[in-house]
Amino acid sequence: MNSIQTLLSNIATKSKSCKFQNPIQNADLKVVPKSTYRHIMIKPPKKIHGLKSFQTHVLPTNRSEIRGIDGAIHVAVQSKFRPKLYHPILNNEFISIQFFPKDHIVSNFRKSYISFFFTMQQLPLMNSPVLDTEFRSYQGKLRNLQFFKTKRKPIQSACGRTKLKKKFRQLFIDAIKETNTSKGKLAGVYALSIKKVPVNEIEDQLVRESFKKLLNKLNKPRKPTGSKTVKLGEFFKNVQYSYKVGNMTDNRVRFPFMKGSELKA
């Protein structure tokens, strides 16, 4: 027997017993331990009665009241209404906007009185087309640095996209509050293509002024869009017409301004 085995054999082992302590026996204790978690009562969701304000013929007063459109229709607009065929109503260094008024077939799928949807593919790196081109073409020894591998544009992260959308919605709300226009002529879908991010108050004001010019332009008489000649039937099968998931019913209205008579293939 080696020395280790001898040492282990000489160690006196004592049996230990575990005793269960009934909490009731300690009921007379003065200090009762409390949980750090609060008790939360779960309540069933409130029933939604009628439409919300942004689903009626009321101009938005808050950026949250400007919703979007169905994803399938977003794809349809990018496919059938390219800027070269359906010209933007506003185009500057920051943004390009195509407007689909309330009588346009696309406006059947808006979720609010005024609806936005965004495309950001034109947004350059560091807000500069020149820098964007130079960084993409750079093949020097610093190419492997982490800087070139990280997300450097707002569209490359969900947080960046959300913040950018909120910013343009808020600037649009500011423009509405500073402009006297007919609400009926502003209703519809606005397709916003972001080309540059305003980064200071001066640039924010430039965007506000461009929105105000847009609103004043929409307030003037304009020719019919002639959208009924465009067939979108192939996209209708992919539209989610309600919020229903599986066998769970949901009475919320997804498209409050839909006119069934216009939805023909």
Could you tell me the radius of gyration in angstroms? Answer: 30 Å
Total strands: the figure is 4
Count up the helices: 7
Beta content comes to 5-15%
Structural class: alpha+beta
Sheet with most strands: 4 strands, mixed
Order of helices and strands: HHEEEHHHEHH
Give the overall average pLDDT.
80
The total domain count is 1
**What level of helicity do the residues show?**
25-40%
Morphology: extended
Terminal residue distance:
92 Å
Unreliable sequence segments: none
Side-by-side strand order of the widest sheet: 1-2-4-3
How would you describe the overall organization of this protein?
With 265 residues, the protein is α+β, with helices and mostly antiparallel strands. It has one domain (53-262). 28% of the residues lie in helices and 8% in strands. It has seven helices and four strands, in the order ααβββαααβαα. The chain has a four-stranded mixed β-sheet, with helices on one face. Strand 1 (90-91) and strand 2 (95-101) form a beta hairpin.
